[in-house]
From TrEMBL:
<dbReference type="InterPro" id="IPR044207">
    <property type="entry name" value="At5g39250-like"/>
</dbReference>
<dbReference type="Pfam" id="PF12937">
    <property type="entry name" value="F-box-like"/>
</dbReference>
<protein>
    <recommendedName>
        <fullName>F-box domain-containing protein</fullName>
    </recommendedName>
</protein>
<dbReference type="InterPro" id="IPR001810">
    <property type="entry name" value="F-box_dom"/>
</dbReference>
<dbReference type="InterPro" id="IPR036047">
    <property type="entry name" value="F-box-like_dom_sf"/>
</dbReference>
<feature type="domain" description="F-box">
    <location>
        <begin position="1"/>
        <end position="42"/>
    </location>
</feature>
Length: 249
C-alpha cells in the first residue's frame, strides 16, 4: 500500500480538529485532506441527518463544518440609538404601603454610579462594586433602614427626554431574596418589549438594595441601589439597545 493510500485509509476516521491539523503538516497532506469525502465523513458523525439528504448542501462539507462546528464569535454591536443623557429613571420603593424612597435619577447619574463605597461595607460587597463588570448603581442619600419583617417592593420606570415617552422596567416587584453573604436584597421583573420585537421575551431586569449590617439582624441599612440586565446585557451599549427595544408609551 502506497503512502498516499495509507493517508486516504486513515483520514475518514479522524475528527474535524485532527483532520484540520493534518492539513497543516505539508502540501501533500493538505491536498489529500481537502477531499470533501473526508469532511463528509466528519459531518456524518456530527450531524448524521445532514448527510441523508438526496442533494448535497450548496456549500462543501468542509465549509459546512467550518461554519457550524463551534459557536460563532459575538459580533460587534452598532452604536446604540439611545444614550444615558437621553434617559431618566423613576425609582419608588415601599415597605408595605409606606413609601420609603422615591427619586428621579438622571441617566448619567446612574451610569456614574458609586465610585467609592462608604466605610463599613463588607469586603465581599466592596469586591463586587469595584469589579470590572459593568454596573448601574446609585448611592442613597440619606440612607434608609428596612425592617425585614415587612414586605419591601419596588417599581422602576424609564423616560426618554427626546420623545417624552415612558417605559416600564419593574412593576411593584418584591425584594424576596436577601443574600446576607453578599449584602444584597434582590427583586426582578420581566421586561415588556415593543410589538416591533415579537421574538424577544424572558429577559429580566434585576434591582438590588445594597446594605450594611445595622447591628440588628431584623433590619438592613441601605446605602445604595444597583440595577442590571445580566440575562442579556452586560455592557453599556448592550443595555442601551435593550432599553431602546422596550414598549415605550
Amino acid at each position: 500500500m502506497s503512502y498516499e493510500e495509507v493517508l486516504k485509509a486513515v483520514f475518514p476516521f479522524l475528527d474535524g480538529i485532527d483532520l484540520a491539523s493534518c492539513m497543516a503538516v505539508c502540501k501533500q497532506w493538505r491536498d489529500i485532506a481537502q477531499d470533501d469525502y473526508f469532511w463528509k465523513c466528519v459531518c456524518a458523525r456530527r450531524w448524521p441527518s445532514v448527510c441523508k439528504r438526496p442533494n448535497p448542501p450548496a456549500v462543501t462539507y468542509y465549509k459546512l463544518y467550518q461554519t457550524f462546528y463551534k459557536r460563532q464569535h459575538r459580533r460587534t454591536l452598532l452604536p446604540p440609538r439611545l444614550s444615558f443623557e437621553d434617559l431618566e429613571f423613576f425609582i419608588d420603593i415601599w415597605t408595605e404601603d409606606l413609601l420609603i424612597f422615591s427619586d428621579v435619577v438622571p441617566g448619567p447619574v446612574l451610569q456614574t454610579g458609586i465610585k467609592v463605597p462608604p466605610p463599613g461595607v463588607s469586603d465581599m460587597l466592596r469586591f463586587h462594586l469595584e469589579g470590572p463588570e459593568y454596573k448601574l448603581t446609585l448611592p442613597v442619600e440619606p440612607r434608609f433602614r428596612v425592617p425585614l419583617s415587612q414586605t419591601v417592593s419596588v417599581s422602576v420606570l424609564v423616560g426618554r427626554k427626546d420623545s417624552n415617552k415612558v417605559a416600564r422596567i419593574i412593576n411593584k416587584s418584591i425584594f424576596d431574596y436577601i443574600d446576607r453573604t453578599a449584602y444584597r436584597a434582590l427583586a426582578y421583573d420581566y421586561l415588556d418589549f415593543s410589538p416591533c420585537h415579537p421574538f424577544i421575551s424572558g429577559i429580566r431586569a434585576w434591582i438590588s438594595l445594597l446594605f450594611m449590617e445595622d447591628g440588628n439582624e431584623g433590619v438592613i441599612d441601605v446605602f445604595g441601589i444597583e440595577m442590571d440586565f445580566c440575562d442579556a446585557a452586560s455592557s453599556k451599549d448592550e443595555i442601551l439597545w435593550l432599553l431602546d427595544m422596550l414598549d415605550w408609551k
